[in-house]
Amino acid sequence: MAAMASPYLKASTRHPHSFPRLPKTHFAPPLSLPLRSLPTSGNRPATRISASLIDPDGGKLVELFVKESEKQSKLHQALNLPKIRLSKIDLQWVHVLSEGWASPLKGFMRESEFLQTLHFNSLRLEDGSVVNMSVPIVLAIDDAQKNRVGRSLAWRLLMRRMTCIEIYKHNKEERIARTWGTTAPGLPYVEEAITGAGNWLIGGDLEVINPINYNDDLDRFRLSPAQLRDEFERRNADAVFAFQLRNPVHNGHALLMTDTRRRLLEMGYKNPVLLLHPLGGYTKADDVPLSWRMRQHEKVLEDGVLDPETTVVSIFPSPMHYAGPTEVQWHAKARINAGANFYIVGRDPAGMSHPIEKRDLYDADHGKKVLSMAPGLERLNILPFKVAAYDKTQSKMAFFDPSRAQDFLFISGTKMRTLAKNRENPPDGFMCPGGWKVLVEYYDSLAPAESERVPEPVPA
Q1: Compositional bias of type Low complexity: which residue ranges (predicted)?
Q2: Most buried of 12, 205, 253, 376, CB within 10 angstroms?
Q3: Where are the alpha helices (DSSP H) in 121-250?
């Protein structure tokens, strides 16, 4: 009898054939369109039914790990270089860069890459081709660190080395305005990583001696793009559709994912595989922490809400910007490098409430529209969500039918959190019982100190 596929990693090591667990997603409603990209101002190539995975940006994955035979010499060289202290978010970006999520980047951005990202949301390669790159991946240093660098051409970042360095001005206001579309105070990532950062940026080629580990019992879920591609090949996937979450999975999410697979099968694909890909880097204080989300995702699989035979669950290591249509391009681009040729996008992806005014910061439909037109994403098929809501007549999540709107109940994230905090149950069919129990346990854990947050894992 053939062994069943599993969405879970079985080993604690991170080798190409090891493999992860469940993530989460940001629930949003889309258009009731057939499974195709949204219309664009140009003509996108027609979808091809092919067993091969989509090529990474630039034609190959750019991993930044030092060869095993060179580790000792590179380590010795690094120990003799001047050192830059890295923040938790800096380390998360080292993780992203080292595994090739940002291919073809070879390290923290130099000024030309930074400016192209800010002004064009893309990078032009030496051969003239264009790849998408919408958020700056940069390393800030202060005046004292800049002076210590001096004329050095290399620098040490813990047990990582950066060479051929370039230092340039960190224009924070321009960076914030162009990434978020506002400089209003209260943007979570800005306050966490930019406001207090140095006035200079340092870019250069990155050499990583050992893979990033967090030692938080979740490393087995952190599959690199290369490992994910190996897993998709092992499963003989002829299509990979990615779904990013930063919230607990409810049955509306599951409906969207299973319906997407049905539509792909109708298009002629034989074995489409879901990449359930929760965001695992920095998130704002009121988001459910990664460890609890992963426990909740595990219960969703155990309860059979998603099929483990056709689901791969892994953690996406990027920090979260909450930069709406600008950031969602980065989320989509990174999944190309992991082998996904379809990307599910919903209402207000990567969005947030305005930090001052009582409104959403971004137009709810702009994320999916921007993805359909973004430079460098022409090869990716964008799948807009349908609107899912709780159907009171069927006691389950279903696609919203405007002709009988009175039969549907929209349960917002705020409402869901309030129910969990009060140990109340949602309507039957909204979330699997095991998953809801985990969510209630998380909010129970906050009861003694409501304002405190479970600490985020720190990369080793």
Answers
A1: 30-39
A2: 253
A3: 143-149, 172-180, 188-189, 225-234
CA distance 382 to 343: 5
CA atoms within 13 A on the CB side of 406: 0
Query: Which of 248, 275, 265 has the alpha carbon at shortest distance from 335?
Result: 275
Q: Position of tokens 């699989």?
A: 301
Instruction: Please say whether the beta carbons of 308 and 6 come within 8 A.
Output: yes
Residue whose C-alpha is closest to residue 316's, from 16, 25, 7: 25
Cross-strand bridge partners of residue 276? 243, 313
**pLDDT given for residue 460 in this prediction:** 57
Task: Please give the distance of CA 125 from its chain centroid, rounded to a whole number.
Answer: 24
- Please determine, for residue 19, whether its predicted confidence score (pLDDT) is greater than 70: no
Rounded distance between C-alpha atoms, residue 249 and residue 269, angstroms: 26
Q: 166 Cβ partners below 8 Å, 6+ apart?
A: 110, 111, 202, 203, 204
Q: How many residues does the chain have?
A: 460
Helix (H) or strand (E) holding 296: helix 290-302
**More confident call, 38 vs 260:** 260
In this prediction the pTM is 0.86
Q: pLDDT grade, residue 154 (50/70/90)? A: low
Only one residue has tokens 């909204």, namely 430
Residue 411: alpha-carbon gap to chain centroid: 24
24 has pLDDT over 70:
no
Contact in structure between 357 and 315 (CB atoms under 8 Å):
no
Task: Give the pair of three-digit tokens for residue 451.
Answer: 């304002």
Round to whole Å and give the CA distance between 162 and 107: 8
Q: Rounded to whole angstroms, how far apart are CA atoms 177 and 443?
A: 35
14, 132, 171, 180, 194 from 177: Cα distances, Å: 38, 19, 10, 6, 12
Task: Quote the CA–CA distance of 227 and 318 in Å, as a whole number.
Answer: 17
Cis peptide leading into residue 104 (ω within 30°): yes
211: exposed, middle or buried (Cβ count in 10 Å: 0-12, 13-18, 19+):
middle
| pLDDT above 50 (res 128) | yes
Contact of 160 with 459, CB cutoff 8 Å: no
Using an 8 Å Cβ cutoff, are 367 and 324 in contact? yes
3-state SS, one letter per residue, for 364-407: CCHHHHHHHHCCCCCCCEEEECCCEEEECCCCEEEECCHHHHHH
Q: Answer yes or no: is pLDDT of 265 > 80.
A: yes
Flag the least confident range among 79-88, 121-130, 414-423, 431-440. Answer: 79-88
Give CA–CA dist 14/218, Å, rounded.
11
